Amino acid sequence: MKPSIYLKFIFAWLIFGLLGFLTIALLSSRLTLNYLITDNANALYREANLISNQYTQSLSSSQLSTEDVTLQLQAIDHFTSSVVWIVNKDGQVIYDSRNASEGAETADFVIEGFDATDIGSKNYMIGTFYDSFPQEMLSVLSPINNGFQVVSYVVIHTPYAEIVTRKDELLNIVYITGGILYLLSLIPLIVFTFAVYRPIKKIAAATGEYANGNLDYSIKHTGSDEIGKLADSLNFMASRLSESEEDQKRFIANVSHDFRSPLTSIRGYLEAMVDGTIPPELHEKYINIVLNETGRLTKLTNSLLSLNNLSDKGMLLEKTDFDINSAIKHTAETFEGTCKQKLLRIRLILTGDTMFVYADKGKIEQVVYNLIDNAIKFSNQNSEIKVETTEKNETVFVSVKDSGIGIPKESVKYIFDRFYKSDNSRGKDKKGTGLGLSIVKEILNAHNENINVISTEGVGSEFIFTLPKSREFND
Ligand code: ADP
Fold first, then answer.
1. Which of 113, 302, 362, 444 could, after both became Cys, cross-link 449 (CB 3.0–4.6 A)?
2. Which residues approach ligand 1 with their CB closer than 6 A?
3. In the chain, how many domains are there?
């Protein structure tokens, strides 16, 4: 199993802790020790200088006796727990604060190999001071002059182990503080768990469900922050996908149904003619029926194709300025034959001689055609269809009104859906495809224009759509 994001974070947190600990143990330890060594060495050096100055004075004047100085040295030993020596140039220790009895210089031993220049540029040295001590000491050295000559040195030693102990004490404080900070750094981890990890886990589970086709799966509320919004978007996306999947299934079912019924009747008539059920003298009649059915299939195919083209994102419109009045006249003329058959009249009530609009002429003619076609289909014999243009501000309104069967109230909201046909339509006119109005809607949507319908069952219907007035030709 691949490590989860949570494990990665815990791993990073542990690494952070380990590196933090190593930094304190190595870097901070070294820096603190260096600091304490220099600080102690400086303090001792200042002390040593003070003593050597006083000693120098006591040698050159009689104001201060060497006893006074040695008393002072013992006081320093006492308070700083350091060993104070006075060593002459040959390495002979002539005073040792640890072995001094009051007012007397008792020490008298020689440091083998003593060389004051060994101390180098630093003002201290760490070690056993020429094997004078069993443990390591921090030693500083300051010369005592007599006249212009160095006669001896003040040497102060302090146990190095004490400095290390102080360093450890200081480091313990740092360790405790670091440990507490490390525990406090769990707070972001806890916040991360609840604010990021858990919601993301829910989202990951949901995407898994979607990938398996369960589009009804809904992500439970994950808050209103960015992740919450992401979850909401995913929920929305899934519901839209689910809807479009439903749409697709319905679409295919409708298309199959609409193709199957004319094909079944064509096949039925042809078989009946071949096997003689329909006598030859009736062949002409049934061939015309078959022809009608193939016409219906062609119409259905054409409508599907044009709907498909229209639905493509970014439908290309060839917008021009054209006269909607004359476009309506030409379209209405194509229905002359049908109108005669059905004893219908088309009355054009057009505003102005010309009325220029800016739109795709071919597609708007198709809109007018589909609306008049429906008006004729659903009109009763011997009635009138009115096509009217009006204008208001920068908009032209085109209305197609019939006094036909009307649309039931409950059906109105569905008439622009693909394949929607009212029951009346199915019975009365088998040529309907249920695609005419959805084509109208797609075209007007692409133009960002609107269509409205006012219909009363048994009285008639009026479809009104808008078009933008042409800016150039109407002024
Ligand atoms: P169809 O090919 O069935 O006419 P449409 O998409 O053009 O498909 O219309 C869908 C449905 O809307 C029709 O079946 C009909 O019920 C209703 N309809 C459309 N126009 C009219 C109208 N002028 N009068 C009454 N009903 C209409």
1. 444
2. 374-375, 378, 402, 404-407, 415, 420-422, 425, 432-438, 461
3. 3
